[in-house]
Amino acid sequence: MRYRLALAAVALLAWFGKPTAADVAVADVSGPCGLPNTGVNLSEGPTNWANFVRPVGRVSVVTIFVDFPDVPATEATTTDFANLVPGGPNWFAASSYGRLTMDVTPVHRWFRMPQPSSAYNFQRGLTFSLHRAYITDAVRAADAAVDFRGFQLLHIIPNRAAAAISFSPTFLAPAGAGVSADGREFRQVVTFGQDMWNWGFKVLNHESGHTFSLPDLYSFASGGGGHPFVGGWDLMGLISGPAPDYFAWHKWKLGWLDDAQLRCVSTPGTTQVTVNPLSTTGGVKAVVVRTSTNVAFVAEVRTRAGNDSAICDTGVLVYQVDSGINSGSGPVRVVDAHPTTSLCGNALNDAAFDLGTGEVATYDNTTAGVRIELLSKSASSDYTLRVTRR
Ligand SMILES: [Zn+2]
Q1: How much is the mean pLDDT over the chain?
Q2: Which tens digits make up the pLDDT trace of 120-166?
Q3: How far apart are the C-alpha atoms of 331 and 224, rounded to whole Å?
Q4: Using omega within 30 degrees of 0 as the cis cutoff, is the peptide bond preceding 339 cis?
Q5: Residue 283 Cα, ligand 1 centroid: separation in angstroms?
Q6: In angstroms, what is the span from residue 229 Cα to ligand 1's centroid?
């Protein structure tokens, strides 16, 4: 449903009869629809959990606050911290259907860094070694007061006057190249910057997504401003997008959806699948049509609920996942059902397929050999799809 067409689309529900016998086997996605990890940066293939934080169960975060000799803190840390918590952990609880509890422990005092705020070069090209030096300095400054044992993740927040700490990169280090404290090696660290004041708490969810192995879905080529690949869907693209919940593909990759909640079509034929809204717990959340070695097309149902409460266009979202494409180069690309129009500030924010007047109900990609046709929609927004793999 596109909200500027809401009146026309309300009651046009159709029922096309009982599903017919499927011509293809429909299986869970851990089998023939699981794309390979090709070794690109933050591949959409399976995660090697030896290198990332597994976001299932309780993940314990320690948050330390730093200030600098050139720009000492004058404000209270608790005020700053309220920008991220509890919004960030609550967002994860909803997105993960309760499977992830992010337990954040703040150490409410300022730790003075040994170097001025400009020494780490955040604004003119932060390198791995400078980023590591920043984290090392912060950990050393806090070490006497903080017991780092028992924490899986480290967050570092600078004072607001430290304008030189401009953005919020995530540090991901190979084994042995992390920063150690109290016998614990931190290989995944989020260092927040002043952009956290623009993004709000969802910057925690975006950066944590990297510590969980998710790639950037905005375009590095456009400087992060264009959002040509996924628009405002999935906050690994635009953090402030209207429908920021993680794609079903990401929820499955992270272990928040079971294998059987994604249905796989990998052989030629036609089948019917009913898909439940992504925002509700349980049921089938997506159909995955694998079309080549590294590529699959995914269809999921997005509704105005939960983390997507500000969504601009509801319905069936179709996107391509390519596990051979690097982070920031478009590993996920949303298919636009309305390519000549835009909504809520981006051409893709009205991308959903739907039934009803003014809607587009069929996606047909003859090149890739995949066709997804919306057959019916229930009162609770369960969509029955006819999926053809040629
Ligand atoms: Zn990012």
Answers
A1: 91
A2: 999 888 999 999 999 999 999 999 999 999 999 999 999 999 999 99
A3: 15
A4: no
A5: 30
A6: 14
Pairing between strand 57-67 and 153-158?
A: parallel
Distance between the two ends of the chain, CA-based, in angstroms? 28
Q: What is the pTM of this model?
A: 0.92
334 shares its domain with 380: yes
State in Å: Cα 169 to ligand 1 middle: 7
Residue 231 within any structural domain of the chain? no
Q: Within 13 A of 118's CA, how many CA atoms are on the CB side?
A: 2
Ligand 1 centre distance from Cα of residue 272 (Å):
36
Q: How far is the CA of 389 from the centre of ligand 1 (A)?
A: 33
Domain that holds residue 65: 57-211
Is the domain of 156 the same as that of 121? Answer: yes
Query: Is the domain of 195 the same as that of 64?
Result: yes
User: How many angstroms separate the alpha carbon of residue 190 from the centre of ligand 1?
Assistant: 10
User: Same domain, yes or no, for 158 and 71?
Assistant: yes
Same domain flag for 71 and 188: yes
Per-residue pLDDT band for 29 (boundaries 50, 70, 90) equals confident
Distance (Å) from CA 248 to ligand 1 centroid: 18
